[in-house]
C-alpha cells in the first residue's frame, strides 16, 4: 500500500510547485508593466486608428502637431457633412393632412396603379387616410403611384384579386379590370375572371371585415342603348356573345353580385357607372378615343375615325370622376349612380377639337365601323346631382390641354431618369 500511494503524493507536490512558479511570473510581469521605463521605447497608441491616421496626415501636411480633440472635431464635421448629403437625396412626400385614429380610414383600392386608381390614391392620401393599393400590373403601372412608395400611410401589393386577399380595411374601392377595348379583348377570359371571381373575393373580404365596397362599373352595361340619355333605370341593350361582351357582361354580373351580397349578407355596397374619362396618366396606346386622337395628332399621323364618326360620346376629366367616387362611397345611397359629363360630342367633332388644340398636319380618315360600337352615349346625372350633390366642374378644353401636355412630356422621354410625373391638381403648389 505505501508503495502505491507514493507516486500520487509526488504528483500533487509537483502541481503545487508549478502553480507557485506561475504566480510569481505573473506578479513580476505586472510590476514590469507599471514601471516608468516599461513603455519608454514605444509611442503611445491612440484609441482610434482612424484618428491616428488623420493625425499623421495633418502633421505631415502642415508640419505642426495635431491634438486628439482637434482630430475628433474634424471627424464629427466630416460625418455631419455626409449626413447632409444623404438627406438631400432622401425621398420627400407632399404634406398630407393628419387624421386621428377616429377619423383615419384604412382604404383598399384594387387596380390602384391604373389611370383612375392612381388619381384616387392621390386624393385619399392627401386627406390623411391609410391607403393600400392592390394591382397585378396587367394594365396598371408602378410609376403611377411611385411618388407614394415608402410613405408610412401607403402600401403597394403586387397581387391578382382572382386569388383571395386577407387584410384589414374599412373601405374598398374595387376598380380592378381592364377598361379599354384593346386590353379587355386581348384577354377576354382574364377580364371575365377579374370581374367575376375578383368581385366575389372583394365582396367576401368586405363581408369578413365589415367594410363598405364601391364597385367601379361602367356605362358599357347599357350596351348600344335604345334610350337616350341613359338613366340608371335603363336595363341596357347588350350582345352577350359579341367581342365586347367579356367586359360588358362581366360588369353586369359584378353589379348583380354586389346586390346579392347586400341582400343576403348585409354588405354595404355602392355602384358607380362610369362614362368616358380622360386625363393625365392615361396609357398612350390603350385604344380609347382621347388617347388615340391626341397621340396621332402629336405624331402627325392620320386621325382614325371608325364609321362615319356620327356616334356620340360624353367625356369627363379624371378629377371630376374622383370627386364623384368619393362622394358616392361616403353617401347613404346604395343604388347605381351614373358618373359622367352630359356634354355630348360626336366622334368626328371631337377629332376636330383635338386637331385644333394640337395643331400639325394630321388628316382625319374614316375606317370600317367596329362591331357593337355604341352609337349614342350620354349620361343622365340627375341621380348623382340629387343624392350626391355632384356634377362635373372641369371644362372640356381645360382637361384636354392638361392631357395633351402630359402626352407631349411622355413622348419626349428617352430614358427612365426623365420622369413624367403629373402633379395632381390638389398637390399643385
Could you list some keywords that capture this structure?
single chain; 429 residues; alpha/beta; seven-stranded parallel sheet; 12 helices; elongated; disordered N terminus
Question: What is the topological layout?
Answer:
Layout: H1 2-34, H2 49-62, H3 68-88, E1 106-110, H4 115-126, E2 130-135, E3 154-158, E4 171-174, H5 181-186, H6 188-209, E5 212-218, H7 245-265, E6 269-274, E7 277-278, H8 289-298, E8 303-306, E9 312-314, E10 316-317, H9 318-329, E11 337-339, E12 344-346, H10 347-358, E13 364-367, H11 382-387, H12 396-412
Helix pairs in contact: 2-3, 4-9, 6-7, 8-10
Can you offer a commentary on this structure?
The protein has twelve helices and 13 strands. It has 429 residues and is of the alpha/beta class. Helix 4 links the parallel strand 1 and strand 2 (130-135).
Amino acid at each position: 500500500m505505501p508503495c502505491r500511494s507514493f507516486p500520487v503524493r509526488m504528483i500533487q507536490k509537483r502541481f503545487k510547485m508549478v502553480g507557485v512558479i506561475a504566480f510569481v511570473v505573473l506578479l513580476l510581469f505586472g510590476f514590469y508593466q507599471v514601471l516608468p521605463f516599461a513603455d519608454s521605447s514605444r509611442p503611445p497608441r491612440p484609441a482610434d486608428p482612424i484618428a491616428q491616421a488623420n493625425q499623421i496626415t495633418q502633421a505631415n501636411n502642415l508640419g505642426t502637431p495635431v491634438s486628439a480633440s482637434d482630430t475628433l472635431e474634424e471627424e464629427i464635421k466630416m460625418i455631419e457633412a455626409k449626413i447632409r448629403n444623404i438627406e438631400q437625396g432622401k425621398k420627400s412626400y407632399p404634406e398630407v393632412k393628419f387624421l386621428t385614429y377616429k377619423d383615419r380610414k384604412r382604404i383598399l383600392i384594387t387596380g390602384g396603379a391604373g389611370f383612375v386608381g392612381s388619381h384616387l390614391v392621390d386624393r385619399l392620401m392627401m386627406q390623411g387616410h391609410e391607403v393600400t393599393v392592390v394591382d397585378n400590373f396587367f394594365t396598371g403601372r408602378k410609376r403611377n403611384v411611385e411618388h407614394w412608395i415608402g410613405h408610412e400611410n401607403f402600401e403597394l401589393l403586387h397581387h391578382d384579386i382572382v386569388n383571395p386577399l386577407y387584410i384589414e380595411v374599412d373601405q374598398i374601392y374595387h376598380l380592378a379590370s381592364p377598361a379599354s377595348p384593346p386590353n379587355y379583348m386581348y384577354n377576354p377570359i382574364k377580364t371575365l375572371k377579374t370581374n367575376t371571381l375578383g368581385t366575389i373575393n372583394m365582396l367576401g373580404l368586405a363581408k369578413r371585415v365589415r367594410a363598405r365596397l364601391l364597385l367601379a362599373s361602367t356605362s358599357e352595361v347599357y350596351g348600344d342603348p335604345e334610350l337616350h340619355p341613359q338613366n340608371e333605370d335603363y336595363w341596357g341593350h347588350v350582345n352577350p356573345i359579341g367581342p365586347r361582351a367579356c367586359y360588358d357582361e362581366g360588369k353586369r354580373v359584378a353589379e348583380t353580385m354586389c346586390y346579392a351580397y347586400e341582400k343576403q349578407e348585409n354588405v354595404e355596397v355602392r355602384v358607380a357607372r362610369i362614362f368616358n374619362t380622360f386625363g393625365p396618366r392615361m396609357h398612350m396606346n390603350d385604344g380609347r378615343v382621347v388617347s388615340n386622337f391626341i397621340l396621332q395628332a402629336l405624331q402627325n399621323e392620320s386621325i382614325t375615325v371608325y364609321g362615319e364618326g356620327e356616334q356620340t360620346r360624353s367625356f369627363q376629366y379624371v378629377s371630376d370622376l374622383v370627386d364623384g367616387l368619393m362622394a358616392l362611397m361616403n353617401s347613404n345611397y346604395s343604388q347605381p349612380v351614373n358618373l359622367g359629363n352630359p356634354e355630348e360630342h360626336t366622334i368626328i367633332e371631337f377629332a376636330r377639337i383635338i386637331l385644333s388644340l394640337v395643331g400639325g398636319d394630321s388628316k382625319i380618315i374614316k375606317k370600317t365601323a367596329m362591331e357593337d360600337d355604341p352609337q349614342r352615349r350620354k349620361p343622365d346625372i340627375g341621380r348623382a346631382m340629387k343624392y350626391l350633390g355632384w356634377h362635373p366642374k372641369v371644362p372640356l378644353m381645360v382637361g384636354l390641354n392638361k392631357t395633351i401636355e402630359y402626352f407631349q412630356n411622355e413622348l419626349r422621354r428617352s430614358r427612365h431618369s426623365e420622369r413624367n410625373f403629373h402633379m395632381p391638381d390638389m398637390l399643385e403648389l
